[in-house]
Design a protein that fits this description.
This protein is α+β, with helices and mostly antiparallel strands. Helix content is 29%, strand content 33%. It is built from 3 helices and 4 strands, in the order βαββααβ. The chain has helices spanning 18-33, 58-65, 69-72, and strands at residues 2-11, 37-42, 49-55, 76-84. The chain has a 4-stranded antiparallel sheet. The longest helix has 16 residues, at 18-33. The chain is elongated and about 50 Å long.
């Protein structure tokens, strides 16, 4: 699996409903139970949010994100997805040759 950083932006606060929020939370819980969600949360300025998800490809990551009610109901009008390499002790912080 590959790791993707997803940044949500252009929040439309006025359209948020309890139903949309509950569906978004269900979406996040499902991602977590499927071992697809590493971390998520809103920015402290409350204007955007971040998710770190696992997927097999960029296309799959985009498909996952488009299932989020916050995206498909335009609560966040934009998102950007970046694939990145996880650096950690297991891979010597990406210093070991492949």
């Amino acid at each position: 699996m590959k790791t993707f950083l997803v940044l949500y932006s252009q929040k439309q606060s006025h359209i948020l409903t309890d139903d949309m929020l509950n569906k978004h939370i269900y979406f996040l819980k499902k991602l977590q139970s499927d071992n697809r969600l590493s971390i998520c949360g809103p920015f402290t300025d409350n204007q955007g949010a971040v998710l770190v998800i696992m997927a097999d490809s960029f296309m799959e990551a985009e498909k996952i994100i488009n299932q989020d009610p916050f995206i498909n109901q335009k609560y966040y009008e934009k998102y950007i997805i970046h694939e990145f390499m996880t650096a950690n002790a297991e891979n010597n912080w990406l210093c070991d040759p492949k």
